[in-house]
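Proteins fold reproducibly. Consider a sample protein:
=====
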Amino acid sequence: MRRAVAAALLLGLAACGSPAPPTAAPSTVVSTRDPAAQCADRLLYWLERIRTSPDASGLDYQEMGLTGAEFEELTKLEALTGPADAEARAACVRIEALPKPSGGTGWPG
């Protein structure tokens, strides 16, 4: 009986230690949408969340995944009533036209 239990235990351990079959590498999806359209989508998403869910209004721009400029435009959109698609798109076109920082990342030096 002991041998049967030991053999079953060893068989179970051997099965657990076997490598998993290789899987295909995940494909990388590259968006073909322009940055202003992606920005507008983010602003409209958060505008809808803020309008329908009081708990979303306390989030900061980092928790929303927005840049500082996008967050400023979002606060302007909050004052509007009704659909804000055109305003969000125009705001994002302005944001995309801003000069981009050059050099390293992190705190300004």
